[in-house]
Amino acid sequence: MKIKIQNSIKFRLFFNYAVLITLMAVIALFSWNHARYYQDQIDEMFYRNLLLDDLKNRLDDVDDELLLYLSTKNSDNLNQYMYNVEVLQESSQRITEQITNFTEEELMFIDIKNMIDEYIFESEWAVDSKRKSNVVGYTYHYNEMMTIKEYVNQYVGELNNRQLSRNASTFDEMSRQASQANLYNMLLIIDLIALSLMIVYKTSNRMIRPIMNLSHSAEEISSGQYDIEDVSVSSNDEIELLAITFNKMKKSIQSHFDDLKEKSETEAKLKDQELENLKMQNLLEQSHMYALQSQMNPHFLFNTINAAVQLSKIESAKRTNEFLESMSRLFRYNVKELHSQVTLAYEVDNIKDYLELLSVRFGEMIRFEFDVDQSGLDVVMPPLILQPFVENAYIHGLSHKETEGHLMITVLDRSLEVEVIISDDGIGMSSSVLTKLFEDHEKVESRYSTGIGIKNVKKRLEMFYKRKDLIKIESTENEGTIVKIILPQDRGDIC
To answer: What CATH code is assigned to 5-207?
Structure first.
């Protein structure tokens, strides 16, 4: 669809704004012309008054300098007098330029001009008499000057009074005309505002109405209704072009939606099959985890029972009973069903039973401490995670120490995860030994060991939480080892 230039929104907006700007320019020009006219009238009203006032001032200047010269005969006063005479003659000439119609007032201007000439003539005689030291002569001529000056002042005063009287009536007429002009300006401005509002309303209404129709249709499409009627716009501009494009888009979306619906049905069937495959894969992963978890050292059970027999020979039945109860709980926990999961609380209790058995052999050679944040004990985890690290602590660290050893187990609740720290002050490990802890062939062999390697624990944690970097080990030779285990907060009932 091709849009004519005169029908385009851009052209219509430009044309409307051009009309409004032109009207505003006309109003501004009209106001400026009236203001300029009134300014010229005011200047003309007071121009003659200004000329007459200037003439009086020039008379006073000539009189002052001449009187000083007649009194002192100072050449500076004479020079200044001559300069003032020239200025007075110029002012007198400007007055004669006002004579155009030879009215009564203009005839008075001629009289003033003649009196000024006579005044200057008498002043020159006074100067000449002063040069000749003729006191009677310059006194006479100066008195004649004063008489002429008085007549000039009377004429000037009369003309000023007449001019002010005429200006008053003229000013009233000008005020009336200015009020009318202001009224015309106000009416023009109101008409311009009304015209502007009408143009804006018609233009916006012509543009917004079809856009609102498009908006309603778009809302219906967004709600899933694709079978609505096409939007009809007959404005022959860009909006009509937009409506045509919108209708094409609606039909394209409907066609695409039908294709997606057909494809989704096919994908649903494929997903059902994929879900079955995922279930099978999950069973295989569980089997792998169970196989890793089931590694147990048979010597552990034998050596523990042997220790119980020895203890029964040297202690009373009560101590032996406590020992055997701890051993029984430890065995039950170690042979827990492979598919089970426990809370950290169960793991900590198991470690306490395990350390109770170790204390029989080591006595006071190893001191065990717990610092447990109770709020973190309900985190869910696989079983037998902490015990291999405790085994590693006393087998490789504390058992080879000649002095008393210290083993500390700390549980910290960090909101999004729980951190378990197992630290000892044993002989520590080198970096090479620390690396071998995570190798497949590295297994703990001891009379007090489950035989579960650190790599086994690492794999089970990663399979359980679907995360990496859950175990961090730091060790320094002859100083000790620190193990940090991160358990993400996955709280819930035990399955």
So the answer is: 1.20.1440.210
